[in-house]
Specification:
By secondary structure, the chain is an alpha/beta fold. The protein is built from 14 helices and 11 strands. It folds into 2 domains: 185 residues, Aminopeptidase; 198 residues, Alpha/Beta hydrolase fold, catalytic domain (Rossmann fold, 3-Layer(aba) Sandwich), CATH 3.40.50.1820. Helix 1 runs antiparallel to helix 4. The site of zinc ion has 5 residues, from helix 4.
Length: 424
């Protein structure tokens, strides 16, 4: 084992740190070289280049004997800085660091700031000094200090990238490009981690993962509900309605896919051939009714569900299955139905009429029945007749202008208020 004088090593490193590294980090902190994800114009702005030049200059004046500096550049990518230090003994060590920064963020004390280096209580504040500006300086300094004591070192390659805070999108490219130069490292040291305190050396033996992507969140500008199209349970309309019920009323909401919808099949629109086929399935109505019963069975088991206050809200296809279901499940205490009737193209496609004729008179719960005055899929007269068939003594009919898909937030509001009134 190679021996060295530890206190001499300490002294040498501390001196370089105070006299040369801290002043360089002070200059480095002033450069707003945000990682490409946080600064798309990083190349034009030239801050990254400025950081590279600072690092390059320092490396040149602190270059270990026989070491070589290389800068790799590929179009549209951040650069890569390599310092290749030949070894006197076997072994290949890769030392890693990065010279791009996180964005400014908020919460800085009044006297501090991201691009304002401040030395306070023996600590250097500012963006990028600790993550990860020090890595290059620390690596070169320790190599030089060991060499000065004639410690025989293996080959060491210092690799500094400039896109780490963006998830290192350029690193794999350069790893490929520099395969021969990198070789097969026996040890990789990444100087880019946190520390629990300042009393001891901390090493991190594993890395957390990272997933990069663009998250887009769209919020509806108006309430839309079932019947505007055959929405599956995760469609934005269903999620918006569920969210609205949960957040507006503090209730639980559950939505399931209709047969051949969502996770159960390909139907997107009522004009899909698969929609017509769906209605040909043996006992499609009875099966869907059983599905709803199963869902409610599970739902009433939840502590947060009051089994005495369950409502049903289903329009269009939600009513085609909803009428037989509500008629057969007395746990439903109030129902919003509609956008459906005894005649019209959707009735012909589905063959639902006999189910309506049998079930509607059995519905005894309070019902709000909502229709579109110029519905092209269920004609007006047929909608009125279906309303008439519903057995409840407590039922009301609301009509809204427009075609099948036209009802807007006003109808949604009224329907929700109806359920609220009967369930609270
Ligand atoms: Zn870092």
């Amino acid at each position: 084992m190679t021996s060295f004088n530890e206190s001499q090593l300490q002294e040498r490193i501390s001196r370089t740190w105070d006299e040369s590294i801290v002043p360089s980090l002070v200059e480095y902190i002033k450069i707003p070289n945000k990682s490409p994800s946080f600064e798309p114009a990083w190349e034009e702005l030239g801050h990254m280049e400025q950081a590279l030049q600072l690092a390059l200059e320092w490396s040149k004046s602190n270059l270990p004997e026989k070491a070589q500096i290389q800068i790799k550049r590929s179009e549209g990518r951040t650069p890569l800085l390599l310092i290749d230090i030949p070894g006197e003994r076997n072994g290949n060590v890769l030392m890693y660091g990065h010279l791009d920064k996180q964005p400014e963020m908020e919460g800085w004390d009044d006297d501090l700031g991201p691009w304002k280096p401040v030395l306070k209580d023996n600590k250097l504040y500012g963006r990028g000094g600790a993550d990860d500006g020090y890595a290059l300086f620390a690596s070169l300094t320790v190599v030089n200090a060991l060499m000065e004591q004639n410690v025989a070192l293996p080959r060491i390659l210092i690799l500094i990238e400039f896109s780490e805070e963006s998830g290192s999108p350029d690193l794999p490219h350069y790893m490929d490009l520099c395969t021969d130069l990198i070789g097969s490292p026996d040890l990789i040291i990444c100087l880019d981690s946190g520390t629990g305190d300042f009393q001891r050396l901390w090493t991190t033996t594993s890395l957390r993962g990272l997933i990069g992507g663009t998250l887009r969140v769209d919020v509806l500008k108006q309430g839309i509900h079932s019947g505007s199209s055959s929405g599956h349970k995760r469609s934005e309309k269903m999620v918006a309605m569920g969210t609205w019920i949960c957040e507006g009323f503090g209730w639980n909401a559950v939505s399931i896919d209709g047969p051949a919808h969502g996770d159960r099949g390909p139907v997107q629109k009522s004009t899909d051939p698969a929609y017509r086929e769906m209605w040909q399935q043996p006992d499609v109505v009875g099966t869907m009714v059983e599905d709803w019963k199963c869902v409610i069975n599970a739902f009433v088991e939840l502590d947060s569900t009051d089994p005495e206050r369950i409502g049903f809200w289903g329009l269009s296809m939600g009513t085609m299955f909803g009428i037989p279901y509500v008629a057969s499940d007395s746990r439903i205490k109030a129902a919003v139905l509609g956008k459906s009737g005894l005649t019209g193209s959707s009735v012909e496609r589905s063959g639902i009429r006999p189910y309506f004729e049998e079930s509607a008179p059995q519905i005894m719960q309070p019902v709000l029945f909502s229709i579109q005055w110029d519905d092209e899929r269920f004609d007006r007269q047929g909608q009125l007749e279906l309303f008439d068939l519903i057995g409840s003594s407590d039922k009301r009919l609301h009509a809204y202008p427009g075609r099948h898909q036209d009802s807007g937030p006003e109808a949604l509001q009224v329907q929700a208020e109806f359920l609220k009134r009967y369930l609270e």
